């Protein structure tokens, strides 16, 4: 019997992994390929994958973050996929455009990864609160300006002390949230040709300033707003609007206040929605590439990706599965999610992004710290200084 090793990131709830193991036993019975699975948390995932890239005896197949592929290609550690490999999964047109782009490196059409699980970020809002404040949800979030006006109206109405709940701590999610405001303002992280970082361009700074300016709507607990507190504040009924991944709805439908669940609405964020998730890669050191491809096809099967959707709320990267095998009952607001997947954007697939990403998270957290402790109302000074320092460090080759 052939032996393959697979590394994946832990999924919540924990029973998801048990369900995957059951499915892998079915795969083994059909193919005579036994899969040894290593599971590690997202918090240590990048460091673990980086270590795999530097050793000769890592796994055969790995789940990796969509934004990590370019760095792994740069290290010359991945095997590429042929057109016939991808044809078995429906080819390029069977994946959402931005998800597909995460499998390549800018300027090169070689496919280095297979899309697997995708995610996006959405605005969750209380329809009943907007109605009481006289706000039309159809226009309330169309732009960052309209969004801020909506929060101001809710605050002035006195319905809630905290119109907006979002983390104000150092968190990866801040990177996933601020990008929409950056793109909405016409900014970006690098030039269209992928050769120059544009972190300090006026549009990029403008988008970041618009996002951080929403601090005034975070209420009395602004300085303590962790990811967990932001989530519990909204789903506990204390705030009117939050931003979160699509899994939040799947999880909160089972645990949150029924009054909140019954009145929740979903819409696109102002600017393009962030599109991320994870891809599957085959390492160059894999001695059984054909068997590895069989495993990847299995992991991208309807049965497996629907299991992840059922338990975790993550969405399949394959259009055919999303459209034909997932119902509105499975995923309420399915049409809004698909609109986000069709129109959203991913981080640039350029060299060094994986390393810059971690530094960006740190800097965005420092901006929150400076802003919460500042006696000034000038967020532009704080953003310009912190992002300017980051741009100088990037250009000096420190990251």
Can you walk through the features of this model?
This protein has 18 helices and 9 strands. The model has no long low-confidence stretch (mean pLDDT 93). It is globular and about 65 Å long. Strands 1, 2, 3, 4, 5, 6, 7, 8 and 9 form a 9-stranded mixed β-sheet that branches. By secondary structure, the chain is of the alpha/beta class. The chain folds into 2 domains: 186 residues, Periplasmic binding protein-like II (D-Maltodextrin-Binding Protein, domain 2); 198 residues, 3-Layer(aba) Sandwich (D-Maltodextrin-Binding Protein, domain 2), CATH 3.40.190. Helix 8 crosses helix 9, helix 8 packs across helix 17 and helix 17 packs antiparallel against helix 18. Helix content is 46%, strand content 15%.
CATH class of the largest domain: Alpha Beta
**Termini separation (Å)?**
44 Å
**CATH topology grouping of the largest domain:** D-Maltodextrin-Binding Protein, domain 2
Counted up, domains total 2
How would the global form be characterised? globular
Decide which structural class fits the backbone. Answer: alpha/beta
Uncertain segments: none
CATH H-level superfamily title of the largest domain: Periplasmic binding protein-like II
- Quantity of strands, as a count: 9
Helix fraction?
A: 40-55%
Rounded Rg: 21 Å
Element pattern in H and E: EHEHEHHHEHHEHHHEHHEEHHEHHHH
Q: Report the average pLDDT across residues.
A: 93
- How many helices? The count is 18
